[in-house]
Amino acid sequence: MTAMAEPAPQQLASFTVPSEPGNERLALAQVAEAVAGTGLSPPRMERLKTAVAEAAMNAIEHGNASHPDMPVDVEVLRRGTDIEVTITDHGGAPATVGQAQEPDLTLKLVGGQGPRGWGLFLIRHMVDAMDVTTEGTRHTVRLVMRAAAPTAKEHSHESDL
After folding, report:
1. pTM of the model as a whole
2. What burial class does residue 103 get, using C-beta atoms within 10 Å of its C-beta: 0-12 exposed, 13-18 middle, 19+ buried?
3. Domain residue spans in the chain?
4. What is the pLDDT of residues 107-145, one digit of tens each?
5. DSSP 8-state assignment for residue 31
6. Structural Rg of the chain based on CA atoms
7. Which homologous superfamily does the CATH classification assign to the domain defined by 15-155?
8. Can you point out the beta strands (E) in the chain?
9. How far is 159 from 145, CA to CA, in rounded Å?
10. Sheet order of strands, 82-89 included
């Protein structure tokens, strides 16, 4: 049995945005432009845009502490039918990565959890895969969205958007 070679990634875009509030909108617009025509359905495109905006906002606010001289790097790749977006800040490893408490709406409403903390939870539920890595001062969130037609289960969730 021979293994199939994984397709070489195709770079669709690579850019930076300054770490200033609101620049998450620039990131999502450039990612949306880069992946137009890749086969993402409109609901899946909206989910990807939401995840990109949230990850970029986290990189700007938490990773780079809104220092405009610290860029947020964004790269968009296509690997076969997968769209992969990486968002990297240069602020080092946040203390809560991997240890963040899962948000609980009931606890938040009664003051048992702070009002923040929805970012990674939201991102994780918007895309097909997400991982977070830190190398030195570079903190990267990698998002994967499959451009292939969604399964019946995915399709039923998209109608809920």
Report:
1. 0.78
2. middle
3. 15-155
4. 545 666 565 566 787 899 899 999 999 999 999 999 999
5. H
6. 17
7. Histidine kinase-like ATPase, C-terminal domain (3.30.565.10)
8. 10-18, 71-79, 82-89, 129-135, 138-146
9. 17
10. 10-18, 71-79, 82-89, 138-146, 129-135
